[in-house]
## 1
Amino acid sequence: MPLLHVAFQEGFSADEVVVAVNGKQVFRRAGITTKTQIGYADSFDLEVPSGELRLDAQVATRKLATSKAIRVVDRLYVGISLDRAGESLTFEIADEPFGYL
């Protein structure tokens, strides 16, 4: 099965984060805080079926949520960040590991 690596990157400060794949919760953790020196807060890996998936991310402490359709074939790296104002989530999709990994 393909591997999905999800990393929480910029803008987190003692936040509770929830992630779902195709509507099923796969990750929930409180207290996520970005290490500003490296732009990394937390991450997890998950085996997923090959093909098109819906990735839902929610920052419960800020009442923010967003979704993104992604296509996973082998390994896929997804970075999730909060914008500078902490008012929206952004996704970064890569085929290679992020620099801090």
## 2
Amino acid sequence: MNYEIRTYTLRPGTLPEVIKRFGDGYEHRRKHSELAAFWYTEIGPLNQIIHVWPYENAEERVKVRAATLMDPNWPPPIGEFLVDMNSEIFTPFPDAPQFEPGNHGPIYEMRSYILKAGSIPKMIKIWNGAIGPRAERSPVAAALYTDTGQLNKFVHIWPYSGLDSRAEIRQKAVADGVWPPSGGLDLLVSQENKIMLPAPFSPML
């Protein structure tokens, strides 16, 4: 399974209308393929929507997108509100969760790391050895690396019941010595995080 993560930056003040129009259009788009998740930013880079589309492979993505071009109800009429658009294709880490539908949040943290060139396999090995104890404190929703787009990018997404819960869980994981994974910091070039909330039609709430 591959995931296309599309990030759109919007004009300030237009988010409610964009979510409405996207939700209306998605009722038609979903007959071609379903969303994995749809979020908007609350903390971090503001005025962004992030939508995640799962595909079995590149061929399915091409087929589905070709079908949507014939659909008069898609894409939603949000072009007037867009400032920037970005699309990246991700491959999940082996054995990592993959965007399971359900009520997991409503707070989601997306952490994006740029790694040193060639270090994705080492990061996967480090994570496989450390994620168990960390996940006992709170589950990870997804861990992925880029196949197409900005290279050497590692994204992990964590759901929380609230910001206070997030702070408590993270502090305890550090205090207990189970997080961050040993050796991972040596592979990092840069880091970014976003706090996101789900749209009403998101499969992950």
